[in-house]
Design brief:
Oligomer: single chain
Largest sheet: 5 strands, parallel
Order of helices and strands: EHHEHHEHHEHHEH
Strand order of the largest sheet: 2-1-3-4-5
Distance between the termini: 12 Å
CATH architecture: 3-Layer(aba) Sandwich
CATH superfamily: SGNH hydrolase
Helix content: 40-55%
Structural class: alpha/beta
CATH topology: Rossmann fold
Number of domains: 1
């Protein structure tokens, strides 16, 4: 195990925070446990806030910078799509968040999502490519769709039919982990 303590800020909405779950069942806690089991000394800071859109995320970017993380897992977009936030606005918010982190030389793992929306197919067609566009523009690693790990599987969802339960979070963590480990290894070296 390395002596270096890696600080990863998990920055997002309820999917990061662990809505309806205990703190030790939330995504940051599970990822931290997985890293430590692999001999990587890491702490995953939970900067998830249920209900946050990219707009609220942008308003909180200073708190992330103040925490001085070695890397950021950036996960927003679900609430933006639920309220039908214009994709142009979402893109602008992400751009400022990403560019702020890049200026501070903080590596980013971008976590995407597909739109679950009642705003019609046109909105989905505009929203869904957003994350791959941003990842390409800023040369960021991308986990394409966090929902694909649990959504639609009743064994992995809370009774609300939206959020992951403990098994759902573990499924997300397992899918996300190879990219999280890669960022951690890069920092460690």
């Amino acid at each position: 195990m390395s002596d270096t303590l890696i600080r990863i800020a998990c920055f997002g909405d309820s999917l990061t925070e662990g809505y309806g779950l205990r703190p030790d069942e939330a995504l940051p806690a599970i990822l931290e446990q997985m890293l430590r089991e692999d001999g990587i000394r890491a702490t995953c800071l939970n900067f998830g806030v249920s209900g946050d859109t990219t707009n609220e995320g942008l308003a909180r970017i200073g708190k992330i910078i103040d925490a001085e993380p070695d890397a950021v897992i950036l996960e927003f977009g679900a609430n933006d799509s639920f309220v039908g936030e214009p994709v142009k606005t979402i893109r602008q918010n992400f751009t400022v968040i990403i560019e702020t982190l890049i200026k501070k030389e903080i590596p980013i793992l971008l976590v995407g999502i597909t739109a679950l929306t009642d705003f019609g197919p046109e909105y989905k067609v505009e929203f869904d490519p957003l994350f791959s566009d941003l990842a390409e523009k800023y040369n960021l690693p991308l986990f394409p769709d966090i929902l694909s790990c649990y959504f639609g599987d009743s064994m992995r969802m809370l009774m609300d039919g939206m959020h992951p339960n403990e098994q759902g979070v573990v499924a997300i963590a397992r899918s996300l982990y190879p990219q999280v480990k890669e960022i951690a290894k890069t920092i460690e070296n």
